Amino acid sequence: MAYPNPPIFAKYYTERAVARKRCPPPPPIPKKFVIFGEQYDLEEPIMKSLPEMGQVQVFQTSEKMPQIKAELKRLNSSIMTMFVDLMQLITNNTGTKHCHEAFQNLRVLFINMHHLINECRISQGYASLVVMQVERLKQLRELSIDVETTRVHILDLLAEARKCSIQVETPFDLESLQQVQKAAQKPPKSMKEAFDSKLTTANRPVALLKTGDLAELLELRGVLKGSNSSQMPM
């Protein structure tokens, strides 16, 4: 799937132009826009008051949470009382006019309570973020404790393994090493010793010898034959 080409004005925002501050400024952010048919204005408050929306306000405006809670409780009690009165009017059937007035009063109370609850959404959002961060911090602390506990447990296992392991020490004998080196430097007295010095086993085939080793063995063989013939009695 091919991505669309960047807009034509992207060529003005190169790294060199941005570093030298020669690129054009970004377009201004619109203050008013429409999303899903709903018009928004960034310069207006997040929530309008009830009188601005053409509704009757029956509660006292306050920015303190204790007073808002008290107003919500008062509205709740008024709604319950008005609902009971409306049920009595409908039951007694005293008149359609009184029932309509009670219904309109109940509607106004519900609108006021709904608006007051919506005004608390911002505080609720901040409180929700605080709770989420506290819970996240708690999880990170528990994870840190678990990691530290696992680390200590692994260190204990390693220490126990070192205690149970067998300590093997190979002594180094300089005198024995010198004797082995002197014995290796002595010339062989027979063909068998020569083969044993060049090969790991006497039964190893001669074909595995190097060229220099084979020439040396042949030369040694001639020397040994010459010495044996000179030692024979005349």
TrEMBL record:
One of its GO terms (biological process) is regulation of transcription by RNA polymerase II. InterPro entries: Med7/Med21-like, Mediatior_Med7, Mediatior_Med7_sf. It comes from the Eukaryota. It holds the Pfam family Med7. GO terms for cellular component: core mediator complex; mediator complex. Transmembrane segments: none annotated. Keywords: Activator, Nucleus, Transcription, Transcription regulation. One of its GO terms (molecular function) is transcription coregulator activity. It is found in: Nucleus. Component of the Mediator complex, a coactivator involved in the regulated transcription of nearly all RNA polymerase II-dependent genes. Mediator functions as a bridge to convey information from gene-specific regulatory proteins to the basal RNA polymerase II transcription machinery. Belongs to the Mediator complex subunit 7 family. Component of the Mediator complex. This is Mediator of RNA polymerase II transcription subunit 7. It comes from Panagrellus redivivus. The lineage of its organism: Eukaryota, Metazoa, Ecdysozoa, Nematoda, Chromadorea.
